[in-house]
From TrEMBL:
The lineage of its organism: Eukaryota, Metazoa, Spiralia, Lophotrochozoa, Annelida. Belongs to the protein kinase superfamily. CMGC Ser/Thr protein kinase family. MAP kinase subfamily. InterPro entries: Kinase-like_dom_sf (IPR011009), MAPK (IPR050117), MAPK_JNK (IPR008351), Prot_kinase_dom (IPR000719), Ser/Thr_kinase_AS (IPR008271). Responds to activation by environmental stress and pro-inflammatory cytokines by phosphorylating a number of transcription factors, and thus regulates transcriptional activity. This is Stress-activated protein kinase JNK. Keywords: ATP-binding, Kinase, Magnesium, Nucleotide-binding, Phosphoprotein, Serine/threonine-protein kinase, Transferase. It comes from the Eukaryota. Its main location: cytoplasm. Its EC number is 2.7.11.24. Residues 359-381 have a biased composition (Low complexity). GO terms for cellular component: cytoplasm.
Length: 388
């Protein structure tokens, strides 16, 4: 026990106290989110910079405990590669077409990968996406649990709903391209510099959408549950605006000289296929990856990476007490440690079979040596540029 205790040190980081393995040095705060607090550190064993998440009060109630368990089981880590910024920060920058399309390409690859693990995210948002200066990108979470209805809410926190698709807001069925809507919102925000649909609640959110995109068709309305349909049909009718008005030329960076697809008209074409209220008419993930604004980066191996282990959805349905969740998390940690040990023993061998469901999957392309990244990195890093 005391021997184990010796491996740890306690440090104050911001308002938080971390008791952590001594291998992690030089802790400094970098972010906080719905669940906790993230700091950067140096891992003296691997000699790499890492990000470490501390869940705040994971056992305060059953919802938090379940979420902690889900996060741990899915992500398999609370320590990960250190990235440079989250996407909220990057959206504020004046990105050229190369960077913008490359970031979107990676989001789409990550989403496709999640889908291939049987996970449809439904709640992608910029604060849960992180990027490095070389424009590589990772998705940090796995979205809404399947059992989460639209009324699902983490108790004391205000959750961002701006990026949620109409079918989520309206409580309809959904399919993979529900995640395309979020990508469309993010892309639109990159171009405008403002949130596309900043609703204060579900109702206001829906208003913001129809004011800009127009009231959806009668045929769409017919697919709504009666009460929702009644509400939606009784809203004032809006025609919406053409995409040339929603995204005028002046908002775009200048056309790329290298890639003919990377120009304002193509970006707008992609936006008008993603920001479509009716999922039946919205572009699919595969087609978005083939779109001329995106497919300049298309790399067969990245797009069709080996599918990860299938996500066990029964996790979402389980009900336990806080004490039971604690026990389950403890068991996961022990299992993880012995797995690490095994991997250590047969270097890389066991690794592939047991690779955690999606831990590297939500991250797409860390391969900075691939040609795609190089061409975007050569003029230094993603630099903030505030002239919009
Ligand atoms: N690997 C990382 N590299 C850099 N920053 C990170 C990393 N992981 C998280 N962050 C920062 O911490 C914030 C919160 O992380 P997140 O995993 O979303 O926590 P939560 O689950 O509490 O929402 C992110 O928005 C980002 O700014
Ligand atoms: Mg978060």
């Amino acid at each position: 026990m005391s021997q184990q205790a010796n491996q740890f040190h306690t440090v104050e980081v911001g308002d938080s106290t971390f008791t952590i393995l001594k291998r992690y040095e030089n802790l400094r705060p970098i972010g906080s989110g719905a669940q906790g607090f993230v700091c950067a550190a140096y891992d003296s064993i691997t000699e790499q910079n890492v990000a470490i998440k501390k869940l705040s009060r994971p056992f305060q109630n059953v919802t938090h405990a379940k979420r902690a368990y889900r996060e741990f089981v899915l992500m398999k880590y609370l320590v990960m590669e250190l990235m440079d910024a989250n996407l909220c920060q990057v959206i504020q920058m004046d990105l050229d077409h190369e960077r913008m399309s490359y970031l979107l390409y990676q989001m789409l690859c990550g989403i496709k990968h999640l889908h291939s693990a049987g996970i449809i995210h439904r709640d992608l948002k910029p604060s849960n996406i992180v990027v490095k200066a070389d424009c590589t990108l990772k998705i940090l979470d796995f979205g809404l649990a399947r059992t989460a209805g639209t009324s699902f809410m983490m108790t004391p926190y205000v959750v961002t709903r701006y990026y949620r698709a109409p079918e989520v807001i309206l409580g309809m069925g959904y399919k993979e391209n529900v995640d395309i809507w979020s990508v469309g919102c993010i892309m639109g925000e990159m171009i405008r510099g403002n949130v596309m649909f900043p609703g204060t609640d579900h109702i206001d959110q829906w208003n913001k959408i129809i004011e800009q995109l127009g009231t959806p068709s009668r045929e769409f309305m017919q697919r709504l549950q009666p009460t929702v349909r009644n509400y939606v049909e009784n809203r004032p009718r809006y025609n919406g605006y053409p995409f040339e008005k929603l995204f005028p030329d002046v908002l775009f960076p200048s056309d790329s000289r290298e890639h003919s697809g990377l120009k304002a008209s193509m970006a707008r074409d992609l936006l008008c296929r993603m920001l479509v209220i009716d999922p039946e008419r919205r572009i699919s993930v595969d087609d978005a990856l083939m779109h001329p604004y995106i497919n300049v980066w298309y790399d067969q191996e990245e797009v069709n990476g080996p599918p990860p282990a299938q996500y066990d959805h029964s996790v979402d349905e389980r009900e336990h007490s806080v004490e039971q969740w604690k026990e389950l998390i403890y068991k996961e940690v022990i299992a993880y440690e012995s797995l690490e040990q095994q991997q250590h023993n047969h270097v890389g061998n066991a690794m592939h079979n047991h690779s955690p469901a999606c831990s590297s999957s939500a991250s797409t392309s860390n391969d900075t040596s691939s040609g795609t990244t190089d061409s975007i990195t050569n003029d230094s890093s993603v630099q903030p540029n505030h002239h919009r």
